[in-house]
Amino acid sequence: MLMRRLPFDPFTRALLATVLLASLLPCRGPWALAFDRVTDAAIALLFFLHGAKLPRAAVLQGMTHWRLHASVFACTFVLFPLLGLLLRPLMGVVLTPALTLGVLYVCTLPSTVQSSIAFTSMAGGNVPAAVVSASTSSLLGTVLTPLLVGLTVATHGAGHGFSWHAVRDIVALLLLPFALGHGLRPWIGAWVDRHRPLLRLTDQGTILLVVYTAFSAAVVAGLWKTTPPLALLATLGVDALLLALVMLAAWFGSGWLGFARADRITMFFCGSKKSLATGAPMAKLLFAAMPGGLGGIVLPLMIFHQLQLMVCAVIARRFADAADAAPGSPA
């Protein structure tokens, strides 16, 4: 009853309920191992379905707008990590080491797919370009995110639980299922397109499984005893600062590059978002040996996810209202 009164969407309420369940009833011992195996299977299925969903024709068509896509990827995989490294001295003061690493991890992730396209469409942006940028970003992230995480951890010392052997697990559980699904798209693509709710259910179910297993291990290791409430508020502040800086850079940078309004909107939404659907499963593989569990890694991502949805919803509506009030005029 309490969850229904919270001012969040149903999935966010489910996330909060999952964290609460893991805090009160964490899985231990053989149950933890069983949940771990089920989660691995769900991750492989998730990326198989994402590969089958990706339209090849849209990718080929959108590749012609290479300047826009390169700008989006620069925001996602260059600007974000650089900002994370610049803010790391501040994070080292106000955040715990696990939360600091979690924020740095957020900076290495690819863009979202569904919400980037949805907000671009709502705001009157270039939707075909958003489909290509967001989908390609998700694909590139399976390769670039492990590399960026490795470089970041190597730059700031070892002992954070990252292992280059995890890249092998990334290939086995993410890249191979994705490639297999995309290869089978001519035969199963129509079925996947007709059953989009199944993909959304797989998306959300996999995230909830990862969050439950991650927080269970973290709670058993004493997450809530070692994470002060002020550090959680500071995480929200750092996430908000990162989001604001990238949004400003994406909007004014796209104007400096001479993009049309529709393309600026696409760069704004696709370049400033980070994917929980990709980040949560990948964290399980990249930080399997994380001391104290994955809770501190996943927590900043969950906060950033909710923050970006709330901020982008407001801004997309303002873009749409501005376009309705003055059709054809610049934003």
Total beta-strand segments: 0
**CATH class (first level) name:** Mainly Alpha
The share of residues in helices is over 70%
- Kindly report how far apart the N and C termini lie: 42 Å
Query: What about the largest sheet?
Result: none
Structural class: mainly alpha
Specify the number of helices.
Answer: 16
The parts where pLDDT drops under 50 for at least 5 residues are 157-161
CATH topology: Na+/H+ antiporter like fold
CATH architecture, by name, is Up-down Bundle
| Helix/strand order | HHHHHHHHHHHHHHHH
Average pLDDT over all residues: 81
Percent of residues in beta strands: under 5%
Question: What's the SSE blueprint?
Answer:
Layout: H1 2-5, H2 10-24, H3 29-53, H4 56-62, H5 66-94, H6 97-108, H7 114-123, H8 127-155, H9 166-183, H10 185-194, H11 196-220, H12 223-226, H13 229-256, H14 261-271, H15 276-286, H16 295-325
Describe the model.
The chain contains 16 helices and no strands. Helix 8 packs parallel to helix 14. It is globular, with a radius of gyration of 19 Å.
Descriptive tags:
331 residues; Na+/H+ antiporter like fold; 16 helices; globular
Question: What's a concise summary of this model?
Answer:
This protein is mainly α. Helices cover 81% and strands 0% of the residues. It has a single domain, classed as Up-down Bundle (Na+/H+ antiporter like fold), CATH 1.20.1530.
